[in-house]
Design goal:
Blueprint (H helix, E strand, L loop, with lengths): L7 H13 L1 H5 L5 E8 L2 E8 L2 E3 L7 E5 L1 H7 L11 H7 L4 E4 L1 H22 L23 E9 L2 E11 L2 E6 L10 H4 L2 H4 L2 E6 L22 H15 L5 E5 L1 H12 L6 E5 L20 H10 L8 H12 L5 H12 L16 E6 L7 H8 L6 E5 L6 H4 L1 H15 L1
Parallel strand pairs: 1-4, 8-9, 8-10, 10-11, 11-12, 12-13
Antiparallel strand pairs: 1-2, 2-3, 4-5, 6-7, 7-9
Helix pairs in contact: 1-5, 10-11
Length: 417
């Protein structure tokens, strides 16, 4: 098995590769950090000054440690779930330890993640320079076939300007983006003729997200999503956009609200496809997403980075991360207020009637937030639900690996008619 080589030769090569790395060079700036990566009794120290690799005898600000057998899984070309990235390991692998200054870790976890990617590339015998991503490449997409417009949607009696895009023809499919993101997550599905030949995909940005406007007169940082507010926005959008008995597709927080839509408004939908959904998610709100000493545009993408599968194409992962980097002040925090706070349907998911509204639940293998086990436990409480595990996919199925996700989605769309 491959583990970190405990030799001065490897340490020197690792440091040299970090010094010449284009990704780390882009992070250079007025910051400093010292951290260590530990494997049993071996320790690998890294120091940064002005955001560049430096020499230092300072004690590490924090240490990220795991035993050799855990690192061996991380160093596999395609690691097993929960072993593929720092934050997944911290969340789901009990043997992993983070000690020291957790705030400094939050400030520089993107740097630690890249240092580990560089070390992995070398440990597996990769040649320099280290690729910017250790993921497969697929290339760009064409924007042809999409149309965009804004409409007015009343929310609590207040008119909101909401931006939407659509593509395709046939049965309406309402596409709901994940927390802190926007309708661009569906661009690659909108470019898939297997889907758009018989379905009209309609995706919109929630207020405060993407190209939609904030609530008129509200202060930045005050956005807080709740179950009742979320349901109202969706139902008002359906009416304003003129959608008729659509299929609804969501994941993560929008997968959760799919369950609520199935309960409250079953007759309004042809069917519901809830991905990465469960009745209750705990522990996913983090103070670092809304902390004055943490760069939100760096930390929030890193917080969600490990939710994606390592097989997901580099271009798709980069798009997901870029969308998260562009969120407004406190918007992701306000969404997670719903996703892992206010949302709790443990007392009512069993009342969903799949005879009135067919319900499909699908969850990705690599999702360490809403795990396959959590989704499956919720599905077991709902008579008539169809549940599928999606191998090779993480928390953002329609955005991180749309071609693979389409293989799971198309049969469900066909079954819903």
């Amino acid at each position: 098995m491959t583990i970190w080589p405990d030799s001065e030769e490897f340490r020197a090569a690792w440091r040299a590769a970090c010094t010449s790395d284009a990704v780390l060079a882009a992070y250079a700036g007025p910051w400093a950090a010292d951290f260590a990566i530990a494997q049993d009794s071996a320790s690998f120290a890294f120091a940064f000054r002005d955001g560049r690799i430096a020499t230092s005898d300072a004690a590490p600000d924090f240490t990220f440690a795991a035993p050799a057998d855990v690192w061996a899984k991380f160093l596999e070309p395609v690691p097993p779930r929960h072993h593929h990235v720092v934050l997944a390991m911290l969340a789901r692998v009990p043997e992993v330890r983070l000690t020291g200054d957790t705030k400094r870790f939050a400030q520089t976890c993107h740097v630690l993640r890249r240092v580990l990617e560089i070390g992995k590339h070398l440990a597996l015998g990769g040649a320099l320079p280290v690729p910017n991503a250790l993921r497969p490449a697929i290339g760009p997409i064409s924007p042809e076939g999409r149309s965009a417009r804004s409409i007015t949607v009343p929310v609590h009696g207040v008119p909101h300007t909401v931006f939407l895009e659509e593509a395709g023809q046939g049965r309406d499919v309402l596409c709901l983006h994940t927390a802190g993101a926007d309708r661009r997550q569906f661009h690659r599905l909108m470019a898939d003729p297997r889907i758009t030949s018989e379905h009209r995909l309609v995706a919109f940005d929630l207020p405060w997200h993407g190209a939609s406007e904030p609530t008129p007169g509200a202060l930045p940082g005050t956005w807080r999503l709740t179950t009742d507010l979320y349901v109202e926005i969706i139902m008002q959008f359906i009416a304003a956009a003129g959608l008729r008995n659509p299929i609804v597709l969501g994941a993560s927080m929008s997968g959760e609200i799919c369950l609520e839509l199935a309960l409250r408004h079953p007759e309004a939908f042809r069917g519901i496809i809830a991905c990465e959904a469960t009745a209750r998610i705990a522990g996913r709100q983090t103070p670092w997403a809304w902390h004055p000493e943490i760069n939100q545009s760096l930390f929030v993408p890193e917080w969600i980075h490990g939710l994606m599968a390592p097989q997901s194409p580099a271009e798709c992962a980069a798009e997901v991360l870029w969308h998260y980097a562009q969120g407004g002040p406190g918007v992701f925090w306000g969404d997670i207020h719903f996703y892992s706070g206010e949302w709790n349907a443990t007392d009512r998911v069993h009342r969903i009637d799949t005879n009135r509204c067919p319900l499909v639940m699908m969850t990705g293998e690599y999702d360490y937030s809403c795990t396959v086990e959590l989704s499956e436990a919720t599905a077991a409480q709902i008579p008539g639900v169809r549940f599928r595990r999606m191998d090779g996919i993480g928390h953002f199925p329609f955005a991180e690996n749309p071609a693979l996700f389409a293989e799971y989605l198309l049969p469900e769309l066909a079954a819903l008619g």
